[in-house]
Amino acid sequence: MKVYFLGTGTSQGIPVIGSDHPVCKSIDPKDKRLRVSIWVHWDNHSFIIDCGPDFRQQMLSCGCRQIDGILYTHEHSDHTAGMDDIRPYNFRQGPMPIYAHQRVIENLSKRFDYIFETENKYPGAPSVNPVEVLNNLTFAVGDKTAIPINVFHGSLQVFGYRIDDFAYLTDVKTIADEELQKLKGVKVLVVNALREEPHDTHFNLQEAIDFINLVKPERAYLTHISHILGFHEEVQKRLPENIFLAYDNLEISI
Ligand SMILES: [Zn+2]
């Protein structure tokens, strides 16, 4: 199984529009971060987690020609705003299966009402097949199983996902003990780390490291990164040896 980091930035991306912050002005490609998303693929199966505003650019960069489904973590725009751009996949494959909490499906159906329209739908509009994700209920992704992990982003419920020995958790601030059990034996963990300073709804760097030490994966990758965290190269040097800052277009094998 391969995991391709399509985007590793927080909601505004890096560089932030109009920012003179040194990280926003950095010429290191690892300091350029699109909105957070990953592409998980193996054999002839291909799934993405989240579909933010940079989706089109991300799909062009990674060369992904087929998507068997989109797994959503939550409804915030940095994770969902790219939905209109699934059309090339619709034209080739038909309606796109989307997996999300019922609340997220309802939210998307209001914001993208023309996609969910059943009567007099505009020809060529995107089409989706929504599948409700329930906590404590696994679902099939190709010939593998996805395990939803229930976490909280402040007071908002968010799903992380485990597939085999890989888990992806973004926009986490708190996680209940029983959900931690679902991460037992994970070899590769991706988790959000916004910046050094505490934040109300996101892990900061220390909280992410503490969480990784609790889960004890072989390797962990940090994502959903703000420019305020610092230069990729400098932050990486300070991390424990099994923890890496993810960066856009990084592909790892599990
Ligand atoms: Zn986010």
From TrEMBL:
Residues 35-224 form the Metallo-beta-lactamase domain. InterPro entries: Metallo-B-lactamas, RibonucZ/Hydroxyglut_hydro. It holds the Pfam family Lactamase_B_2. This is Phosphoribosyl 1,2-cyclic phosphate phosphodiesterase. It comes from Flavobacterium noncentrifugens.
